[in-house]
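Job type: complex structure
Entries:
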Amino acid sequence: SQTIHQWPATLVQPVGSPLSLECTVEGTSNPNLYWYRQAAGRGLQLLFYSVGIGQISSEVPQNLSASRPQDRQFILSSKKLLLSDSGFYLCAWSPPRNTEAFFGQGTRLTVV
Amino acid sequence: GQQLNQSPQSMFIQEGEDVSMNCTSSSIFNTWLWYKQDPGEGPVLLIALYKAGELTSNGRLTAQFGITRKDSFLNISASIPSDVGIYFCAGQINTGNQFYFGTGTSLTVIP
């Protein structure tokens, strides 16, 4: 069966510090991968999605970037965090046929 | 991006009551998904719909894909305390495209 791992679960970072959140999927090949941000427990905003290694599409301009160095690994990064980057970050994957999306447990990021 | 309008925004109901929530879009979707999110957790897929008019059940949950392909509803029968959470609809315009999410319906069940 397929599983998705996302870490860390919680993170407190000072303003201006770098960020790296990692997401890996097991039990499938060539998944589509997504990063979402959720503010105040409501509304999922799509940040990035990827249909293959090195293929990243950005939905909104922001202080964040994403990379996919391996087929089942998706990384969300920032060089310098802003207070407004605080939120709940969710990684998700979907099969190549892309008809359902499955989420990780999320990372609660607090920028102080 | 696409906007999905989900209503109601929040619901407070007595245990045992039935619940109904819906999601509408200005665009035609090929896929509708319904998720439940518990506090501090990632959303969990409840029901997936792929055809206009499709009615699908998962235990006490029933969801339908609207005939116009621009809406969907989710019903929960005989609510219980563990139904508490935020319910999201999500849609996909074409297979292979990204998923767009509604703003969520927060459900509180009063024992």
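Summary: Residues 53 and 71 of chain A are 5 Å apart (CA to CA). Chain A touches chain B through 26 residues (CB under 8 Å).
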